[in-house]
Amino acid sequence: MTSFDRSIKIAPSILSADFADFGREIQAIEAQGADWVHVDVMDGHFVPNLTFGPPLCKAIRPHIKTVMDVHLMIAPVDPYIDAFADAGADVITAHLEAGPHIHRTLQAIRGAGCKAGLAINPGTGIDGIEYLLDQLDLVCVMTVNPGFGGQKFIHSQIDKVRALRAMIGDRPIHIEIDGGITPETAPLMAAAGADVLVAGSAVFKGGSVSNPAPYGENIRAIRAAAEAAR
Ligand code: DX5
Ligand code: ZN
Predict the structure, then answer these.
(1) CATH code 3.30.360.10 for 9-228
(2) Where does a divalent metal cation bind (predicted)?
(3) Sorting pLDDT into bands at 50, 70 and 90, what band is 1?
(4) Are 203 and 221 in contact (CB under 8 A)?
(5) According to the model, what pLDDT value does residue 78 have?
(6) Has residue 6 got a pLDDT over 90?
(7) CA distances from 59 to 52, 53, 175 (A)
């Protein structure tokens, strides 16, 4: 990963990609301007959906030239950290709600050589983050309930991001937002202080590996709306 900055970064979620063609989908979104590649890992237990695990991450890693941003929607987390690190994750994000020992989890993520992210569900406040700030490289504010792509943005999270941005101050911690991000919702969050914008359906809609230009148009529309709101 390059050094820390607060520029707007678009992180397409491959949850909305063609699951039979991840390698070419990743090459297409990066060629069309993606800054990071967001990988949504779900266990059918912490969230009511199943996606993929470390072997898939390892298989797609050679196709990712930017940043592999792995969002773990799994519980427990700790037994799998080394496997996702070995698979080549740059950032590993675990949920605050995934277990009682998130401090230990964040230490283990950094210990495995990755950037440590903490995700919080829409119903979770930021109070629990205060004593974790020194352990964090990223906070992911969920703007939908995790589990599925294509859900509606939850507006109450705007105030949360604003409060989180104030809490973070000058610390080199990214604020990522995840769920329901479009050219309409991205500027609300960019203005509140988010810098990493995850988007699945809004990036992949209208395009394919054989017709990737819409991916670029979608990415540019989200980025332009977010940057104009800064
Ligand atoms: C939700 C995932 C998101 C999701 C975003 O559980 O963490 O990354 O795929 O999808 P859209 O942009 O379609 O809401
Ligand atoms: Zn995600």
Answers:
(1) no
(2) 38, 40, 71, 178
(3) confident
(4) no
(5) 98
(6) yes
(7) 11, 10, 28
Task: Tell me how far apart the alpha carbons of residues 90 and 67 are, in angstroms, rounded to a whole number.
Answer: 6
Please report the atom of ligand 1 found closest to the CA of residue 71: 7
* Mean pLDDT of the region 58-75: 98
* Residue bearing the CA closest to ligand 1, atom 10: 149
Query: Where are the domains positioned within the chain?
Result: 9-228
Measuring CA to CA, which residue among 196, 183, 224, 209 is closest to residue 139? Answer: 196
Pocket test of ligand 1: the residue of 14, 16, 97 to mutate, having most ligand atoms within 8 Å of its CB, is: 16
Q: How far, in Å, CA of 82 to CA of 95, rounded?
A: 17
Over residues 165-196, the pLDDT tens digits come to 999 999 999 999 999 999 999 999 999 999 99
pLDDT beyond 90 at 135: yes
- 2 has a pLDDT exceeding 80: no
Q: How far is the CA of 39 from the centre of ligand 2 (A)?
A: 7
